[in-house]
C-alpha cells in the first residue's frame, strides 16, 4: 500500500484529523482541529517529513504552504480549497480531495479562516512559517 493510501485510510477509518505517513510508517497523527498540529509536526520533524504523505481533513492555503515547506510528496484532503490544490499541483505535489471549495471558512462560517487570510498575505512558505511561529509563540505565554 502506498503511503498516501495508508494515510487516507487511517484518516477515514480511525477518525483522525491529520495523518502523516512515510515509508509505510505513521510519523504523526492527531485528532486536534486546525493548523496547529501540522505546524507542530513540521517544526519538530523538519527534514524527516521530506517525501512523506499527508492526509488532512481540511487543506487550505496555510496547510498547502506548510506542505511545500516540508517537501511533502502527496496530499489527500477531505475538503480542500481550489487555491490550495492549484498551489500544490503547480509545485509537483500529488494531490487529491474528496470535496473542493472556493475557500476555507472560519469555524462558524462567517468569514475566511484566519489561517487562510494569513497564508494569503505571505509570498513564500518560509514567510508563513515565521508568521505562525510568532502567532503560536504568543499563545504559549
Overview of the structural elements:
The protein is an alpha/beta fold and 141 residues long. It has a single domain, classed as Hypothetical protein TM1506 (Cytidine Deaminase, domain 2). It contains six helices and five strands; from the N terminus they run H-E-E-H-E-H-E-H-E-H-H. The protein has a five-stranded mixed β-sheet with strand order 2-1-3-4-5. The radius of gyration is 14 Å and the shape is globular. The protein starts with a helix and ends with a helix.
Which features characterize this protein?
alpha/beta; Cytidine Deaminase, domain 2; five-stranded mixed β-sheet; 141 residues; 44% helix
Largest sheet: 5 strands, mixed
> What coarse outline follows from CA principal-axis ratios?
globular
- Beta-strand fraction estimate: 15-25%
Strand order of the largest sheet: 2-1-3-4-5
Radius of gyration: 14 Å
How many strand segments? 5
The CATH superfamily is identified as: Hypothetical protein TM1506
Number of domains: 1
Q: What order do the helices and strands follow?
A: HEEHEHEHEHH
For the terminal residues, how far apart are their CA atoms? 43 Å
Low-confidence residue ranges: none
CATH architecture: 3-Layer(aba) Sandwich
| CATH C-level | Alpha Beta
Helix content: 40-55%
| CATH fold-level topology | Cytidine Deaminase, domain 2
Going by helix content, strand content and strand pairing, the class is alpha/beta
Number of helices: 6
Mean pLDDT: 94
Amino acid at each position: 500500500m502506498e503511503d498516501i493510501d495508508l494515510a487516507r485510510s487511517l484518516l477515514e477509518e480511525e477518525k483522525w484529523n491529520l495523518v502523516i505517513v512515510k515509508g509505510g510508517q505513521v510519523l504523526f497523527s492527531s485528532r486536534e482541529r486546525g493548523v496547529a498540529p501540522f505546524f507542530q509536526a513540521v517544526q519538530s520533524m523538519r527534514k524527516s517529513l521530506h517525501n512523506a504523505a499527508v492526509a488532512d481533513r481540511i487543506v487550505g492555503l496555510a496547510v498547502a504552504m506548510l506542505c511545500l515547506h516540508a517537501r511533502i510528496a502527496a496530499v489527500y484532503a477531505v475538503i480542500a480549497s481550489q487555491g490550495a490544490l492549484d498551489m500544490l499541483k503547480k509545485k509537483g505535489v500529488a494531490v487529491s480531495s474528496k470535496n473542493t471549495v472556493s475557500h476555507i471558512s472560519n469555524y462558524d462560517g462567517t468569514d475566511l479562516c484566519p489561517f487562510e487570510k494569513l497564508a494569503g498575505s505571505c509570498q513564500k512558505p518560509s514567510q508563513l512559517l515565521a508568521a505562525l511561529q510568532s502567532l503560536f509563540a504568543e499563545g504559549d505565554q
